[in-house]
Design brief:
Length: 308
């Protein structure tokens, strides 16, 4: 039976009307399938079902979107499925693009601020943030860019194998260290500076394997730290240009010191990370402050001892 032949006799068997009278307005159920639609009478559907075209010729009785929504959700045509799939792909791609742009803009702004503080002069330092975890996508600084004029366009999107998915240039040489921190610590962002104090202290304390900082109120700016009595241990790794080897050493250090919020590369600089970009940026500010305090304290103690 076709809906177009639905007359008085067929009206009692209308699959949509139920107990309501002929001509009552029905909202189309989302579970409706084409068989139900075929059995519905014209007044209920608000249109005529065409078996040849397998579609409805609509009357103004019901809004077209209601009819389409009913068909779309219950018995999607291949073309509709394709449209839905391409809409989802477009939407996922669009949200990944906007997430990348937003992170790149935030990282660039942090980089310029760090430059202004003297922590990433010239092309030193590198910054990254997680765009997606499954599969892993990282926004990271392109190699060799001036941090004082850093822009969002100077970031790349890479995967866990350092393949470039977005942007031009090469990823920072230290990208392997960023990836190691993402894997080992679940970091949402990783920031690396080449400040004067991290360079001096990583050299001075290299023989101790690390630097302990305790007793300062500013320690409470580190995630999970609630008291100035906290003892922050910053391990120090020997500097190297062999990044795969350095990444392996870093993984071992991170396992050995699970409570550390950062580490130093000898004669090189500071790495820290956090749950997201804002927490990581705060960690840079806190650790750079503490390193400067320790450095100035050590310097004044030496000066005092020399004067005595
Ligand atoms: Zn570096």
């Amino acid at each position: 039976m076709s809906a177009s032949s639905c007359g008085r006799a067929a009206a009692s068997r209308c699959t949509l009307r139920g107990d309501e009278g002929v001509g009552a307005r029905h909202a189309l159920p989302v579970t409706m399938n084409l068989d139900t639609l075929r059995g519905a009478c014209k007044p209920c559907v608000g249109g005529v079902f065409c078996a040849r075209k397998n579609s409805l010729r609509l009357t103004p009785r019901l809004p077209q979107r209601e009819i389409i929504a009913g068909l779309y959700l219950s018995d999607p045509e291949p073309a509709m499925l394709q449209q839905r799939s391409s809409r989802r792909r477009f939407s996922a791609k669009h949200s990944a693009t906007s997430a990348f742009r937003e992170l790149a803009a935030g990282l660039a702004e942090a980089g310029r601020a760090f430059y202004a503080r003297g922590w990433v002069l010239g092309t030193s330092g590198n910054f990254s943030a997680i765009v997606a975890r499954e599969p892993l996508r990282l926004a990271i600084t392109s190699s060799g860019v001036d941090k004082g004029a850093l822009t969002a366009t100077q970031f790349l999107e890479i995967d866990e194998n350092l393949n470039i998915l977005r942007g031009s240039g090469a990823p920072s040489a230290e990208a392997l260290l960023h990836l190691a921190l993402v894997r080992a610590r679940g970091a949402g962002a990783v920031l690396h500076t080449h400040s004067v104090w991290s360079t001096i202290l990583s050299e001075s304390f290299a023989g101790h394997g690390g630097l302990a900082i305790s007793g300062y109120e500013m320690l409470k700016g580190l995630a999970g730290v609630a008291t100035h009595k906290h003892r922050e241990w910053l391990p120090i790794l020997e500097n190297s240009q062999d990044m795969p080897e350095l990444a392996r050493q870093l993984e071992a250090i991170l396992q050995r010191y699970p409570g550390s919020h950062g580490f130093l590369l000898r004669g090189h600089g500071l790495y820290t990370w956090g749950e997201n970009l804002s927490e990581t940026r705060r960690h840079v500010e806190i650790l750079e402050f503490l390193l400067e305090v320790v450095g100035r304290t050590c310097g004044s103690a030496r000066g005092h001892a020399a004067a005595v």
